[in-house]
Amino acid sequence: MTSFRDALSRRVLVADGAMGTMLQAHDPSLEDFQGLEGCNEVLNVTRPDVVAGVHDAYLSAGADVVETNTFGANWAALGEYDISHRIGELSAAGARIARERADHWSEVSGRRRYVLGSMGPGTKLPSLGHTTFAVLREGYRQNAEGLIEGGADGLIVETCQDLLQVKAAVLGARDAVAACGRDVVLVVQVTIETNGAMLLGSEIGAALGVIEPLGADVIGLNCATGPAEMSEHLRYLARHCDVAISCMPNAGLPELTADGARYPLGPSELAEAQAGFVEQFGVGLVGGCCGTTPEHIAAVARAVAGRPVAARRAAPVRGAASLYAHVPFSQDASYLAIGERTNANGSRVFREAMLAGRWEE
């Protein structure tokens, strides 16, 4: 059977859609959540049948790839429930369920299906001082280790909002991959808001400048918006990204109704948009995020599944990235100065260290 890495290089692969809303539709009880209401990852051990049913729905719709029910199986998210010690257990359990269903559908259909281990952003952003880089990296290492143990073909660091969190997740994942000795594909997806930047203000060039050197195999976008709002960011990736590209949008921008959020984009509209991204930008991994259903994924699969990945000529722009922007190394002047403003007025501690010459501090 073709490996996940080989399949990505040869044809367009279709991933699944939303997980959380599908789980909630089964109306899990408080007992199912082990008293931790809303912690979907606990269902991996209490209601594996429900989780397996979600995977089956997407696989029967034509998905080549299913993501594990582990979006919140990280130090920060599980820490909200005081169960961060269960990162490895819940990650491995989620991966085993997805692996079993993917193998079943591989055998039934004669077409290999794959598992991506979902690694979400959590609730603590290191750039805002919520936690330390070292704590996050170790938590993500445990997350990735459990996913690999459970049989994931790849890891997907997704819905990223803070580039420092991205670094912690990717390096934690790479630590786990190095320890396991297996070929595990690494996908990284950032979330660009309607204002054209990540939550902390990073534009797509800065994101690419940080992520690509870390060794990601696939770089892309997911969540926050529908496909229309992702178009220009994908265009940038198509022009400048050296590795494969992915796209998993919401079913449009959510509309608030009396019954809660409604996602307006129908299956045919999502499929048309994804087909356009495949043709124009050489996107090789497509799927859905919030508001997408098996019907959406079935339409996308009919539109693009099995197509060869469109050839593109990327022209990487080498440079340095701050949290906000990418600075190319191309020079108009005789030398290029890259610096950062100091905060001597806003921080008394910083000012005193600077005046005293305590540069390391």
In short:
The protein is an alpha/beta fold and 361 residues long. The chain is 41% helix and 13% strand. 49% of the residues are buried.
Write the layout of secondary structure elements.
Elements: H1 4-10, E1 13-14, H2 20-24, H3 43-46, H4 48-60, E2 65-67, H5 75-79, H6 87-109, E3 114-119, H7 133-149, E4 154-160, H8 163-180, E5 185-190, H9 204-211, E6 218-222, H10 227-240, E7 244-248, E8 255-257, E9 260-262, H11 267-281, E10 285-286, H12 294-304, E11 319-321, E12 326-328, H13 348-356
Parallel strand pairs: 1-10, 2-3, 3-4, 4-5, 5-6, 6-7, 7-10
Antiparallel strand pairs: 8-9, 11-12
Helix pairs in contact: 4-6, 6-7, 7-8, 10-11, 11-12
